[in-house]
Write a sequence for this structure.
């Protein structure tokens, strides 16, 4: 069993990006600049946003964090997005999800200029992804591909089972794994809460990508020997044993499953750090354009 180490790989990518930033600046280019909008003060969102801002600092990007209270109107939010769209110094814009219920997430996603949509959530970019055209790939699925590539996991001809069909993870990764690319060229089965006989399907997976948000959902009896498992899930639970008082648990019962795997991502330290690294990569790509 080999660990797909997202922490190490993301640090490698950040080092590569920092070198590219130095090169870009020394050749007269501009410093990459990521803007992030955070609405409200949800604990998990605060953690994700501060990790993204810190990562910008680390690689030499500029960053701007715009905060709104959770009662901000949709119109005010849209007008801030419009302002950032027009700001030529800003290369990438992300709006941290989820948003409060009174705000239409799709309306907000569509308001972001697709050329600055470094999260890759805009319908125009999702369409290009599906057609295998150059675009910003959604950061979490892009992080999964990068891990598979750097660890040379064979994907062509394999059966890839994806659990969960969200717009940000399950659905795009199922498209990416089926494209005629490397990584890719899998035969993909996309499963969700209405899927029947999930156990039987996951048992046939050569590559199992799990993104449903239920701690320890995938157990040893659900997978075959030699499977490669990508665990996207993050559930925060209270803990007396950590400094923060919280710990993160994946969707896969890691301890009982790991010995059956050829490869597996840990939680934390797997897909999570890769998501941030790919967001930075997308931002640099936007700057270079
Ligand atoms: P969503 O909550 O949007 O979607 C969950 C999906 O799981 C849905 O498609 C749902 O099906 C499916 N599902 C729920 N129960 C079952 C079940 N019993 N059997 C099969 N499928 C089921 O999730 P996200 O994709 O946004 O997030 C998933 C997890 O990944 C979360 O823990 C989240 O925190 C984490 N995450 C981690 C990231 C990272 O960087 N590591 C980035 C993004 C998310 P249906 O559609 O039928 O309701």
């Amino acid at each position: 069993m080999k660990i797909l180490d997202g922490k190490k790989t993301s640090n490698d990518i950040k080092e590569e990006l920092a070198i590219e930033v130095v090169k870009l600046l020394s050749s007269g280019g501009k410093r990459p600049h990521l803007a992030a909008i955070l609405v409200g003060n949800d604990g998990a969102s605060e953690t994700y946003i501060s990790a993204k801002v810190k990562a910008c600092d680390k690689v030499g990007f500029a960053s701007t964090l715009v905060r709104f209270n959770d009662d901000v109107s949709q119109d005010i939010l849209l007008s801030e997005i419009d302002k950032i769209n027009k700001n030529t110094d800003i290369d990438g814009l992300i709006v941290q999800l989820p948003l409060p219920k009174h705000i239409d997430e799709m309306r907000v996603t569509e308001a972001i200029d697709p050329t600055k949509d470094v999260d890759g959530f805009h319908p125009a970019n999702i369409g290009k992804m599906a057609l295998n055209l150059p675009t910003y790939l959604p950061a979490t699925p892009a992080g999964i591909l990068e891990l598979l590539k750097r660890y040379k996991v064979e994907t062509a001809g394999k059966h890839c089972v994806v659990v969960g069909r969200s717009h940000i993870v399950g659905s795009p990764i199922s498209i990416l794994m089926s494209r005629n690319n490397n990584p890719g060229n899998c035969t993909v089965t996309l499963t969700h809460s209405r899927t029947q006989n999930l156990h039987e399907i996951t048992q046939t997976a050569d590559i199992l990508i799990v993104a449903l948000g239920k701690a320890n959902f995938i157990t040893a009896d659900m997978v075959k020997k030699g499977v490669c498992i990508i665990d996207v899930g993050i559930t925060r639970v209270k803990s007396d044993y950590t400094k923060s008082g919280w710990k993160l648990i994946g969707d896969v019962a890691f301890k009982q499953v790991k010995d059956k795997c050829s490869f597996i991502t840990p939680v934390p330290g797997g897909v999570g750090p890769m998501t941030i690294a790919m967001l930075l990569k997308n931002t640099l790509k936007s700057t270079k354009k």
About this structure: Residues 27-113 form a domain with the Rossmann fold fold (CATH 3.40.50.10860). The chain has a mean pLDDT of 97.
